Amino acid sequence: MALAPKLEFKQSQQLVMTPQLQQAIKLLQLSNLELADYIEEQLEKNPFLERDGEQGDRRDETRSTEAAERTGEAREDSSREEAGRDNGLDQTVGEAPGQATAELDADYDNIDPNSAGSDRASDVADGVGAMDWTSAGAGKGPAGEDRAIDATHISDKSLKEHLTEQLHVGTRDPQLLFIGAYLIDLIDDAGYFRDDAEAVAERLGADMDRVTEALALIQTFEPAGVGACNLSECLALQLAERDRLDPAMKAFVDNLELLADGDLKGLIKATGADEEDVRDMIAEVRALTPKPGYAYGGETVQVVVPDVFVTQAADGDWKVELNNETLPRILVNHRYYSTVSSVRQKDADHAYVAENFANANWLAKSLDQRARTILKVAREIVRQQDDFFMRGVRHLRPLNLRTIADAISMHESTVSRVTSNKYMATPRGLFEFKYFFTAAIASSSGGEAHSAEAVRHRIKELVENETPKSVLSDDKIVDVLRADGIDIARRTVAKYREAMNIPSSVQRRRQAARAGL
């Protein structure tokens, strides 16, 4: 077989993810506050960007001087880097000032088919206990909703980093260091060790005594109470640090369920103390921190700012508007670009000017596209959930990302990015976009499915309206819901009830009896 050269042509399609397209995708998933910070960075770096409202009569000679200083720095290293990259920006920016454009290589409305976000899962109970922490000092609220802001995230250092530093100070034993590091990885954001020590010893092939020793060492670290396996142990560790864990107090924290049930007589009997002492113990325990890990780690708490406003128009329809007040408006200074371009420049300086002008145009175009995309998704969510806005949470419809994506002819991944970290202010309150995406629960009559969020609200409503003489069991709630056309299992009712921190029927009946109702 003779060898001979030949020429073949092959046609194929591929998606080119240019840096500009990646930037446009990134902008979609930023919140308003994050986007404002990003724009501030771009305003500082790019000489052709300015805020809408800035004085436009800057002196040309001043701007030209600035240009000379910027371009005079040569940017040689960045131009060399650019030689190895896709130089699409330079190709799209012409020599003449009016020809500078930046075109998308692909429409980011329909890209990245494998990265579609999943719908939000149901909330899970935190398992800390049903104790009322309404008078706690640094740890109010079982889920942390009433904790003082200054008591939360007091350090930029993460909890893991904080504990790891103390571990290396607390021991030089290589085995303890290894086991301790493993245990620290298993401590959750609240500061609790939720795993089983025996299982850890088995996984690591270590002696149980060594694992216990490492865990006991971690429990001496700051913040006090960290590394506890449950709430009682967490409080006991904090009391021990204060030298207040006497036998009576130990009996008190071992019987926290009596405090949760409001059983004062039971606490008196369990501790062997009189009523006044027990009340002092209650006050002292409530001043402790039930979730010490929240003082570290996690993201800095930020104020939630709505991205869109939903209001009802005079004709009864819903009006959806973007919140433009939270974002600085930017303009591309074409006049300045014309001035700079008219000056003879070196190749590196010309590339720097062309790149920044193209980036400025691209950012302006991407921000406009982002705004229109968010508005389009928000309007479709409002349209799909019209009954919720008109009649309340019981009428929240099951909804997923694909339904919205199909309705507005976008890809699921795009809708997922748009709904991340976005909020809408409505007449019924401030809601995250993802709140409206809930799982479907089948109808017992074969009709339209029900939203899981609406079912949770219905369960809460049934419990709130029950009388002490007719406390509803989970089975009874199932019967009531099925009579309303909601096909739900008993275990699902129990899961939703626990997620909302609603006690069982036995506990509710006992609480009503103690209250003398």
The gist of it:
With 517 residues, the protein is mainly alpha-helical. Helices cover 48% and strands 5% of the residues.
Write the layout of secondary structure elements.
Blueprint: H1 19-28, H2 32-45, E1 49-51, H3 60-72, H4 76-83, H5 88-92, H6 159-170, H7 174-185, H8 197-204, H9 208-218, H10 231-241, H11 247-253, H12 256-260, H13 264-271, H14 275-286, E2 308-312, E3 318-322, E4 330-332, H15 334-341, H16 347-384, H17 386-391, H18 401-408, H19 412-419, E5 423-426, E6 429-432, E7 440-441, E8 450-451, H20 452-464, H21 474-483, H22 490-499, H23 505-514
Parallel strand pairs: 2-5
Antiparallel strand pairs: 1-4, 2-3, 5-6, 7-8
Helix pairs in contact: 1-16, 6-7, 7-9, 8-9, 16-18, 18-19, 21-22
Report on this structure.
- There is one protein chain.
- The protein has 517 residues and is mainly α.
- 48% of the residues lie in helices and 5% in strands.
- It has 23 helices and eight strands.
- It has helices spanning 19-28, 32-45, 60-72, 76-83, 88-92, 159-170, 174-185, 197-204, 208-218, 231-241, 247-253, 256-260, 264-271, 275-286, 334-341, 347-384, 386-391, 401-408, 412-419, 452-464, 474-483, 490-499, 505-514, and strands at residues 49-51, 308-312, 318-322, 330-332, 423-426, 429-432, 440-441, 450-451.
- The strands form three sheets. A four-stranded mixed sheet has the order 3-2-5-6, with helices on one face. The chain has a two-stranded antiparallel ribbon with strand order 1-4.
- The chain is extended.
- The chain starts with 18 loop residues before the first helix and ends with a helix.
